[in-house]
Specification:
By secondary structure, the protein is an alpha+beta fold. Helix content is 30%, strand content 15%. Strands 2-1-15-14-13-12-11 form a 7-stranded antiparallel sheet, with helices on both faces. A two-stranded antiparallel sheet has the order 3-8. The relative contact order is 0.15.
Length: 426
Amino acid sequence: MRFFCMLAAFLATAAPAVALPADAPLPVVAPAAEGFSPERLEKLGRFMHKTTDQNGYLGGVTLVARNGHIVDWQAYGHRDLARKAPMARDAIFRIYSMTKTVTTVAVMMLVEEGSIALDDPVSRYLPGFSAPSVLTAGADGKPVSRPAVRPITIHHLLTHTAGFPAGLKGDEPAMARMEQDDPHGARDLRGFVERLSRAPLAADPGTRFGYDAAALEVAARLVEVVGGVSFEQFLRERIFVPLGMRDTGFSVPDAERGRVVDITTMGEDGKLRLDDGPSALHPGVPLNAYTSGAGGLYSTAGDYARFCQMLLNGGQLGDVSILGRKTVESMMRNHLTMLDRPVTQFSNAEGFGLGGYVVIDVALRGQLGSLGQFGWSGSASTTFTIDPEEKLVAILMLQHLPRQDMRDLPRISRNFYTLVYQGLVQ
């Protein structure tokens, strides 16, 4: 009898299971089962409730997983501007630049198949880039054009070192020329690449990091040309369906559009209002005329958690294998070692891998985290991180386009990650 009492006490203390929806994206356990303090994680909940009150963001979803188990998955606030529809854990968000990591995985799948190599010139598959030129301002301020010193490679695309205009100092002549060709006005990826290939670069390939959308649109077109199917079909058949990411895509089915979160910006009166874009007025419609590999996807916290867990697992999720372990390890290493710090325009403490930042100096970064931590964000306040050292995935989904020209809602990603990491006790 004493044995059974001890066994019952042990099971009660271990409490690995937590009552959450049966269709949770990953197995759900009690925080303590994976080294989190429940009391400490409550700080995250209190912060998010405060952040999504009447004076804050409309609402948000957070998801924290460790060792493949969800320890916290919560919805806060509301889905709509009227603040009448409560936020749900399966709400659908525009993830914008978090699309870039998905596109990178698609490219690396082709690399693993031997169809392409990272050091291949892009012009081998997209001939329009066979003779890139660089346009800069001369000593007298007039634009000067010259041939690029080397071709653009696939590696340059994935590391934002191709030299496309990126809004950096000195980019003005090349940016003005690119805007004349208006690649973003194209109706498909083929048209985007054709227009972009006519425009000059702002720097020689491989000489600087310049974060831009163009490189990943070219990468998406590369997937189409080499993969032999549309970019959308490749992602759906090779990534989304195998991983069970059923709510991720370039548009949202009519029957599910009620789950799309309103996207806000700050009005001139200091109050939140809907953004002006088409997807704000008609939630769920495509975000671009073309299937943007740089920022075109809708997704949920749950779907993206499965994608992140696949990467954390070394390319596998359950019986599904998307990439090999060594490929994922390479993605999560700093690929900008040829550049002097600061290697990116965002942080001296971060390098860039393939598809996301890589933490190269935790102390200099000034926030809790780990060496080798990998992640990225989207322009409408979504963000994710994958921490191989802690076997951790953390995702924050909000839907707000911040403004730089006026007082806006506070950026909270640093607070979010601090509150996640402070919850670790083992």
